[in-house]
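Example 9 (inverse folding). The structure is encoded as follows.
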């Protein structure tokens, strides 16, 4: 197994889309979900989410915290959360700890208090077993039992589920190919019927090298961020998967919006996990933070 930096593509090239487009969606193979007790308030399949997670200072931003908390309050309470973060890519795909282990503090240069934070969510071993069953033999899933939640997972969850009382499982991305990630998400779709909240955590624009003046306090956003955000919103509203898959070539604002593409990649897992991925998703959060688009949505 090889852990890859998110800005380095895996070897072997992109995985082609399945012939004839996405196949039929199957039910979860037989087997219990022993750690998924019935949760109050749930009715019908949960949506799949794509959200901007921000760095730990998000936790000091009252508006963004309120937006994330308000969003989670509108959702049925999940029995468990399966999250795919921009900050974990391995080949083959891996699942993280299924017990409560220390967090991954995968950032630097912030005040010490951010490195002292804890998010002791319960593990989800039953969900991990089900994820393995849902993947085909051609999609091996490795175990990383000591790998805790990275900041792409625990920062937004700290805002949305601050009591840390919902079991959480983190899964890596096997590569950054949109068609392959969409297929991974499609395989996960049945989990939504079981009360699992599937979350892709990234950032709709992530041109960190080009926002120094916005970090310094300049209001608004650069034009490349505005244009990419608008393009993505329109493509999502049309359910135009082909256009979204070809964002590198078709989106305005590239490559500034995503000089590396790992923060957009979880979006494709989310869309794959939707029952109707070509339906326009519901926008939950929009606007900009230090010049980057916070656009987040739920797909059904």
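The amino acid assigned to each position is listed next.
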């Amino acid at each position: 197994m090889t852990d890859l930096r998110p800005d380095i593509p895996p070897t072997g090239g992109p995985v082609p889309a399945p012939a004839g487009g996405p196949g039929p969606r199957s039910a979860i193979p037989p087997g219990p979900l022993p750690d998924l007790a019935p949760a109050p308030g749930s009715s019908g399949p949960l949506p799949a989410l794509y959200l901007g997670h921000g760095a730990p200072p998000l936790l000091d931003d009252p508006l963004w915290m309120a937006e994330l908390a308000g969003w989670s309050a509108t959702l049925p309470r999940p029995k468990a959360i399966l999250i795919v973060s921009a900050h974990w890519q391995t080949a083959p795909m891996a699942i993280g700890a299924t017990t409560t282990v220390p967090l991954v503090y995968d950032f630097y240069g912030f005040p010490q208090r951010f490195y002292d934070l804890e998010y002791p969510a319960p593990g989800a071993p039953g969900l991990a077993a089900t994820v393995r069953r849902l993947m085909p033999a051609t999609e091996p899933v490795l175990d990383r039992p000591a790998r805790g939640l990275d900041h792409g997972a625990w920062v937004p969850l700290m805002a949305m589920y601050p009591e840390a009382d919902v079991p959480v499982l983190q899964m890596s991305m096997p590569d950054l190919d949109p068609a392959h990630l969409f297929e991974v998400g499609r395989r996960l779709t049945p989990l939504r019927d079981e009360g699992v909240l599937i979350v892709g955590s990234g950032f709709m624009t992530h041109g960190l090298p080009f926002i120094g003046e916005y970090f310094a306090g300049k209001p608004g956003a650069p034009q490349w961020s505005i244009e990419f955000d608008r393009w993505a919103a329109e493509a999502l509203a049309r359910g135009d998967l082909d256009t979204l898959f070809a964002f590198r070539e078709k989106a305005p604002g590239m490559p500034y919006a995503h000089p590396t593409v790992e923060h957009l990649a979880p979006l494709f897992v989310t869309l794959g996990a939707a029952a109707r991925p070509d339906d326009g998703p519901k926008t939950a959060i929009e606007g900009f933070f230090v010049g980057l688009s916070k656009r987040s949505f739920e797909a059904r």
